[in-house]
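Example record

One chain of 231 residues, shown exactly as stored in the release files.
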Amino acid sequence: MSRSTFSPTPARSHRFARVAAAIAGGALLAVAVPTMASAHVTVSPDQLVAGDHGVLTFAFSHGCENSPTTALRITMPEGLASVSPTLDGDWTIDVERGEDGLVSAVTYTALSPVPTDLRGAVSMGVGLDEDTPDSLAFPVEQKCVDGTTEWTQIAENGEDPHSLDAPAPVVTVAAATGTGHGDDATHGADAAAEYPAAAAESPWGMILGAGGLVAGLAALVVSVLAYRRRS
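Predicted structure tokens for this chain:
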């Protein structure tokens, strides 16, 4: 009994190459998009209660392009009653005060530059007044070995903050409910301490990454169906 061997024709080889390229492209998009989406400086928790206290953690996972981060200078918005930077062995702290004696900016300088593939974070305790605005933006200047990135953009009314190239971290302020002083702020701070990575990362990275994977799989299905019709 004779046996026949299958030798793919150039056309079939070309179709297989397109299928492989579609799979690789979808996988690359699924990995690359979350990386870009998580490049922002984030703050957690992103909500506090008027008149209460809380601990804010500012996190980042990338430097300026591919340059390690050396410092973060965070400008304080109006409406804060108190600011207490958290002492950390990995950072030195420089506090600037306004004419009223309140903290106007805090600069955290890393003892060793933070590589672009590692997550860095700094924190501070803040106190809010009863009349604190319903939104607090914290402009951040990220200094690196080479270059600087200013996270200072603030979304206008009706504008999607995720559409901004370099948004400032923003904390929303909820009205006091009178059900227990500090309960909401404390719960938010505890949740951020227990799950720091989850609190810092934006869910848009996961959503866009899933979209990239779906696009890759759709391209694979189309290529396979086209191959079946032509073979």
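Notes: The radius of gyration is 24 Å.
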